[in-house]
Design a protein that fits this description.
Number of strands: 8
Strand order of the largest sheet: 1-2-3-4-5-6-7-8
Strand content: 15-25%
Number of helices: 11
Structural class: alpha/beta
Bound molecules: erythose-4-phosphate
Radius of gyration: 20 Å
Distance between the termini: 40 Å
Largest sheet: 8 strands, parallel, barrel
């Protein structure tokens, strides 16, 4: 399962990138709006940092298919290869997906709340389909199960589309996706940091350091012995 960062704050992206094994950056209009800046300015900054080989995703916001497709063409022109245009899995979105597929522009189907949306997006040629796990949970359904079902639908129908699970709010949701081996998960920096933010883990490491310093002297490490 590939881990991607769901954020557009360049400093936060850099921080996470340096520490964790992440392989892509995704954004959505809400995330970009928080920057208060021109979206292309922000996305180009991210692209420059992550390099041209790494997946970068941004969403089209037009209401009609032609507009969505046009936004997609512009994104790829401005942000280069390995830019995935996020297209909502709604009727006009499916029409846009078919246009983009015909032009070889990669896209991610987004705003997925039901497995059938994902199936249709897969049939349209989506590279990824993004179910919103936590939002599905909030509707009273089972987001983890929906993501698993979508993964199975793709495999059982011989589709190349990968699941890109989105909208995580806790470590357990992500653990369930790791165990199932979905294609990818896009996760907010705060949730990524929370994966290992645990006093028990930190205390265990503190005890090792203290014990070693008792042996070799304060501040000394294996390098000093
Ligand atoms: C990603 O594609 C989604 O836009 C995002 O993960 C939604 O997350 P949220 O439910 O936290 O807004």
């Amino acid at each position: 399962m590939k881990l991607m960062i769901d954020d557009a704050r360049i400093e936060k992206i850099k921080e996470i990138w340096e520490i964790y094994p992440v392989e892509g950056v995704t954004t959505n209009p809400t995330i970009l709006a928080k920057s208060g800046r021109n979206p292309y300015e922000v996305l180009k900054e991210i692209r420059a940092f992550i390099g041209k080989e790494t997946p970068l995703m941004a969403q089209a916001v037009s209401r009609e298919a032609e507009g969505m497709a046009e936004e997609g063409r512009r994104m790829v022109k401005e942000l280069g290869e390995n830019t995935y245009v996020k297209i909502p899995a709604i009727p006009e979105g499916f029409r846009a997906m078919k246009l983009l597929a015909g032009e070889g522009i990669p896209f991610t189907a987004t705003a997925i709340y039901t497995p059938m949306q994902a199936f249709l997006a897969g049939q349209c040629g989506a590279s990824y389909a993004a179910p919103y796990l936590n939002r599905i949970d909030n509707m009273g359904y089972n987001g983890v199960q929906a993501a698993k079902d979508i993964h199975d639908i793709f495999r059982n129908n011989g589709m190349k589309t990968e699941v890109l699970v989105a909208s995580f709010k806790n470590s357990h949701q992500l653990l369930e996706m790791c165990k199932y081996g979905v294609g990818a998960a896009t996760v907010a920096p705060e949730v990524i940091e929370g994966l290992v933010k645990n006093q028990t883990i930190l205390s265990a490491v503190d005890v090792f350091v203290q014990d070693f310093e008792g042996l070799a002297g304060t501040g000394r490490t294996m390098n000093d012995c």
